[in-house]
Amino acid sequence: MTIDRRTFLESTLALFGAWGLGACGDATGGSGSTDSDGTTGQGEPSGTSGGAPTDGTGGESDSTGDEPTTGTTGGPDLMPKDIITVTLTAGTSGELLPWTIGHFFAEGDVPSGTRVVADVDEFQAVVRNRWPDGSVKFAVLSGRCDFTAGTPRSVQLSRVAEAADPAPAITEAELVAAAPDLAVQVGMLGTVSLASALGSPVQQLLAGPVASEWRYRLDVDEQLVVWCFVRLYKGGAVEALVSVENGWLDYAGATNKLARVVVTSKGHTLYDSTSELDIKHHTRIVCTAGHSGKLWLDADPQIVVAHDAAYLQQSGAVPAFLAESTSQELLDKLADKYVPFAQHNLPGDALGSGGDSASIGWLPLWDATYVVSAAPRALQSVLVNSFAAGAWSVHIRDASTNSPPTFAAYPDLKLPQSSGDMYGGRAYFAGQYGTDWDISHGWLPGYVAYLVSGDWWHLEELQYFVKWVHFSSDVMSRGGAAGLMVRSIQPRGTAWQLRNCGMAAAITPDDDPERLGYASAVGASLAWMRDYHTNALGIIIEPDQMYWGDIGGERTWMSDYIVGSVAWVLDLKVVEATHEAAADAFMQWCGSGLVRRMSDGTNPEGWHWAYQAYSPTLSELSWPENQQQTSFDANWGIAFERFAGRPNGPDLDDGYIHATNWDDLGFEGMPVKEAFGGDYFEYAMCALALCVNRQIEGAEAAFARIAQATNFPTCRAALAGDPRWGIAPRSFVQQG
Q1: Surface-to-core class of residue 354, CB atoms within 10 Å of its CB (0-12 exposed, 13-18 middle, 19+ buried)
Q2: What are the φ/ψ torsions at residue 122 (nearest 5 degrees)?
Q3: DSSP assigned state of 119
Q4: What pairs with residue 325 in β-bridges?
Q5: What are 159-202's pLDDT values in tens digits?
């Protein structure tokens, strides 16, 4: 059984003829000053069936409640325009039911001087990130409208000119007046109440006329804290995300805590762990038995969102994928209900072991499945697995700021680097912590969950994992506070940390000073790598690789991970001007090297695209001299002839993709590939697709050869069971 979610072009030739590498969809570029103001809108009810987008007023405060900045107006690119729809489905029927989602926008779709509106009764859009041209990148959307239980409602998102006078935002005084009753009992350790913190929030997360949100800190003892993320909607509805977190940045005296956790309101139990939880130090849990993480103080409207999958991929927020459908078998194996410290779909004690895992890839399996399908079960899994990441002991909150520590504040801090009860292992595993957080197999925690929900908890999860890797790395190799990610022993470790830090730079709000910290760390790393890597092949190795390395050859597929990750990060335009030229130069160098490795038989200085190897020998010298930049072959054709025992040539263009040779199969023994999955050809293919987005010369033609292969449709069909290793150029995905 398959579930179709997108329309793709039927003809590969027609598809490639239609490729264009400009803006996504039919968007046009915007112009104007770069700012980080939020935009909100609220208008008269437009009827339960929807109608013209809610006009309202705009320019409301940003995510910290600062005053709005007025944008420019005028010009054809600022005219009203429909952008995209999202689909909302409620589990209950009712009038003016409240909801909040996250939404990423393609560059130029909402230019500076315009704002997001929707065809619902009441609506606001709080902008957290903008593209360099001032157009909206990411916003948290909230609304109230009527629903019939189980009946999907399409919400049209559009842009209109910015309004002059913002509607007043809901204030914390209104929340205080509502006096929400919320108590959290943490076993014998004590009970804390939201009432004790009202009036003293740590941070305001949303400010608007439809919904405002605050973050509260409730100390159970010197180590254990309850964090309450409380959102008040117009009309009085209150939702809360309650998280219990054990430990701060300082490890001194950190211990595990045993407690049964119960959350109550007005005499009703909203959550009960039912038994004692062993809350390991530097872990955190969410008090929920479902997937959303939300506790509603009154009735839960049970609203589920489905984003437009094609738009999400075309926007650049996530890679585009080749999968045309999603199998029911895939959806059935995804976790759908959160249990504190359960493994769910995470690798657990398998992290760091050989072979594939559902967590490995530019996106982990659950995130890739939602990006392809927008299926409700996939959405549940995205959120559940983000919450499940809280079971790793990487949560090092700075008590002085109530946030993950900044790069600059602790330039010389070194966290433990060996296994043991102080390291970032997984709490559920037998023994104290089990496996470490293995950077070479690290996944992308929290990112897609934040994109689709807009919930701060998930953003923090990503930030925690980025900072843990930074502070557990050697101080000298990371350049102190510079945050260099260039000495991870294995190139794949560098790839995944560059990806994670790059995504943090893309979605940490513009008005958060540490957003620049993430961006600077990425930029400085790419500049360092551009200076270090000078070989003629465009192959990336680690400076320390000779101490563990591939004595006989180089693992090209680990280099591919870096190529693809850098391409994706640069697409999100997070690198600052001081590092931009070096970052672009590094991308051109490594991307061009990959293109030459995906040559056809007409290029005698190229490796043949259809016959990829696990770890080819790329130097005439022996280990460790073969790890030096000046020791690599002068071109890929030399390496290919060494591998195949013959030069590259047109007679090898048999029209088939061949499975990777990583055993002792002879060159002639490489079979025709039957499916795309976790294999070494796919890693190169995915990185190549991301190079197409960056317009690396020759990348588009190289990817066209793959898509025109005789066995490409058969291989592509297998992605219905696992879409991760089928990344495509953005222009491959068509809206419809």
Answers
A1: exposed
A2: -135, 140
A3: S
A4: 4
A5: 999 987 778 999 999 999 999 999 999 999 999 999 999 999 99
